[in-house]
Amino acid sequence: MATFFTTSIEYLKGVGPQRAALLNKELKIFTYADLIQHYPLRYEDRTKFYEIKELSEELQYVQVKGKVVSKELVGTGFKKRLVAYFKDASGEIELVWFQGIKWIDEKLKSGQEYVVFGKPNRFGSKFSIAHPELELLTLNNEKEGSIYPVYPLTEKLRSRHLDSKTVSKLIRDVLTVAQEKIRETLPVDVLQKFHLVSKKEALLNIHFPKSYEHLAQAQKRLKFEELFYIQLKLLKLKIVREEKFKGHVFKDASLVTTFYNNHLPFELTEAQKRVIKEIYADLRSGKQMNRLLQGDVGSGKTIVAFICILLGISSGAQCALMAPTEILAQQHYNNLKRYAEKMQISIGILTGSTKKSERRVLHEGLQTGELKILIGTHALLEEEVQFKNLALAIIDEQHRFGVAQRSKLWNKNFSVVPHVLVMTATPIPRTLAMTLYGDLDVSVIDQLPKGRKPIKTIHQFDSHRLKVNQFLRDQMTSGRQVYIVYPLIEESEKLDLKDLMDGYESVCRAFPDVAVSIVHGKMKPEAKDFEMKRFVKGETQIMVATTVIEVGVDVPNASVMVIENAERFGLSQLHQLRGRVGRGAEQSYCILMTNYKLSSEAKVRIETMVRTNNGFEIAETDLKLRGPGDLLGTQQSGVLDLLIADLGKDGQLLQRARETAIEVLKNDPDLTSSKNKVIYTQVESMRSNIMNWSRIS
C-alpha cells in the first residue's frame, strides 16, 4: 500500500522523466500521493449551457455548444490573430486567438460542432471569447456538464503545455487505480460525530465533485483531517515535553510581595494579574514552562516579565531577557534597571557593542551567581556566556529569532531546563496561535493600563498635505515629537512611491526651522543608533524613517505618527507602527496618508485602522485578507504548509479538530487502543516525511 502512494510520478502514463522533473520543481509533486493531494484552486461551473443570446459581460465564464461556421486569419505581424465564427440556434459570436495560432488553426475544423468555454467580452453589439477552451461535442458532454476543477499552476508549466486540463487527467488516471488502495485515516466515532464522509469519497469529490453538496462534504472532511493531525502532533510534543523536562520549582514569592507593597508605581490591570497567576502556576508546577505572552503594544508586558523575574530570583535563580535589537535591549534594560535598583538586585546588559572589559565583569558575575538579571541581544547565545543557575529565559518579539537560536538558551543550564516565556506585541489571531504555537500555553493581556488614551487614527489624502503639515507644526509647538514613515528607501520604477530621500527633503523644506532625523535599513548600525538616540533625547523633533522603527524605540514624547503611502503597508505592520506613539499621557495621533486610487483591500485596511485600536480584531482581519503565510513570515515555520485548510476561514473546524485531538490523547496518550489504530498508523506513515518541528515554540 505504502509503495503505491510513494511511487514516483515519472512512472504515470503521460508523464515521463522530463514532465516529472518539471512537476517536481514547479509544484513540489514527486509521488502519486503528492499528485492526489494537489487540490484544485477553484472550480468552474460547467453544469449549465448558455445560448449565445443569453451572454452578457457580467458573466464570469460561460459554456456554449454550437458549430464553427468559418475561420480566417486577420491582421499582420504582432497584430495577427485567428478568428472563428461560432453559431448556435440563437446567434453568433467570434472566437479569437492571438497565440498558438498555427496549432489551433490545424485542429479547428469548419462545420464541426464544439463545446466552448471562456469569458465573454463585448465589442459594440457583438460578443467574442478570447482563447476559449474547446472540446468536440460528444453524447457525454452534451448531456451532462460538470463542476470543473482548476488547479494551481505556474507560467513555466503552461508554456510546456501542462495546463489544468492535463493535470486533471493525470489525477483522474491515478485515482482510478488508487481507489481500492485508499485507507481510512480517522476513527469511526470521529466520522460519525462530525458527519464526515470517508477518505476515499472525499478524495474523489475534491477533484471531481458530483455536486456542490458533495464538494462541500469533501472539503470539510479533508480540512478537518489536516487540522486534526497538526493539532495531534503539537499536543503530543507538549505532553512529551511536560513528561520529559522538569522545571526549576519557584515557590518563594517574597520579593514580589515586597515589590507590590513598596515599589510598584501603578496598579496592575486585571488582565496583567490574571496572566501573572497563569505564569506562577507553571513556575511552581515542577514542569518546564513554555508559554507565549501576547499583549498589544503598551499593554504592560515588561512589568509582567519583571514580576516573573522576581519569582525566579526569590527562588535562588538567575534570569535572562533576550531582545532582537540593541535599541530594544537597551530600552528593556533602562526600564527594568529602575525597578531592580529599588529592589537592590544586580542587573547587566550584553550586546554586540559591549566592551571587552565590561564583558569580563559580566561573565564573572554570571558564573558566581552574583549577577541576577542579564538583558541582551543574540550576544546572550555566545558560548562563553555561562550562567551559574539560569532558570527563566524571556524572549521578546520571538518571531525574529530562529528555533536554533532559541534552543541555545535551553543549553545554558545543565542541571535543569530553563522555563521559557516568549513575549510578542504582534497580535496573533486565535486560529494562528493554535496552529503555530499549539504546543505552548498562551496568555493574553487584553487590556490597556489605566490613564492610557487610545490613539486617534485619521485617514487623509495627499491633497490635504498643507492641513496635515499645520497640524504637525501645532503639535511640535506644544513640545511633541513626530514620526514620518515611508515604505521604500530607493525609488522604484514600477511603483509610484515617495522615495524616502525625496520625502526627507520635502519635510526639511516644509519645516525649515525644525531639526529632523533620518533612519533607514541601509544605514550602518552605529549611524542608525546615533540618529535614534538624538530623537530619544529630544534633539530632533521629526524622525523620518522606513519601517525599521516598527519594533524599537519607546519615546513617550512622540505623539504623532504619519504613515506615507499607507495603502502599501499590511494591516499588522500599520498596527505595529501606530504602536510607536501613545506611550505618554498626551493624546496621540496616527495619520494615514494615501492617494485617491485605493484597491478594495487597501480600503478595508485603512477603514479597519481608523475604526479600531484592538490588535486582535486587526489581526483577524489581516488573516482573512492575506492568509496565514504572510503573517509574521510564518511560511518559514513549516507548520503552515497547509494543503487545503484556511486558517482565516476554518477557525471553527480548527477548534473542533483541536478538542478532538485533546480528547483522543487524554483517553489514549500512546494511541494503543483498537479504535485509534487508524490514527496510530497515519501518524507513523507521516513521521517519515514531515519535518521535525522543534519542541521549542
TrEMBL record:
This is ATP-dependent DNA helicase RecG. The keyword Transcription regulation does not apply. Keywords: ATP-binding, DNA damage, DNA recombination, DNA repair, DNA-binding, Helicase, Hydrolase, Isomerase, Nucleotide-binding. Residues 282-445 form the Helicase ATP-binding domain. One of its GO terms (molecular function) is hydrolase activity. CDD domains: DEXHc_RecG (cd17992), RecG_wedge_OBF (cd04488). The gene is recG. Pfam families: DEAD, Helicase_C, RecG_dom3_C, RecG_wedge. It catalyses: Couples ATP hydrolysis with the unwinding of duplex DNA by translocating in the 3'-5' direction; ATP + H2O = ADP + phosphate + H(+).
